[in-house]
């Protein structure tokens, strides 16, 4: 199963996104970013497992601002 690391603009979006994904049966949790190369964002990411389209669609439809998504196989 693919894991996706989703950068968001605030800790509020990270919590909202994690909770939303969990309600939809998607395994998701929040982690502190380990690499802050001057990228925009709050310093936290959502890590989620599953279908990328379903995950991003759910987040965007609920108003969570996604800054970047990296997928890990």
Topology:
Blueprint: E1 3-8, H1 11-23, E2 28-32, E3 44-49, H2 52-61, E4 66-72
Antiparallel strand pairs: 1-3, 1-4, 2-3
How would you explain this protein's 3D organization?
The protein has 73 residues and is α+β, with helices and mostly antiparallel strands. Helices cover 32% and strands 33% of the residues. It has a single domain (3-72), classed as Alpha-Beta Plaits (2-Layer Sandwich), CATH 3.30.70. The chain has helices spanning 11-23, 52-61, and strands at residues 3-8, 28-32, 44-49, 66-72. The radius of gyration is 11 Å and the shape is globular. The N and C termini lie close together (7 Å).
Mean pLDDT over the full residue set: 90
* Lateral strand order in the biggest sheet: 2-3-1-4
Low-confidence blocks of residues: none
Query: What's the story with the biggest beta sheet?
Result: 4 strands, antiparallel
Tally of helical segments: 2
Short summary:
This protein has one domain: Alpha-Beta Plaits, CATH 3.30.70. Helix content is 32%, strand content 33%. The protein contains 2 helices and 4 strands.
Which structural traits does this protein have?
4-stranded antiparallel beta sheet, 73 residues, 2 helices, alpha+beta, 32% helix, Alpha-Beta Plaits, 33% strand
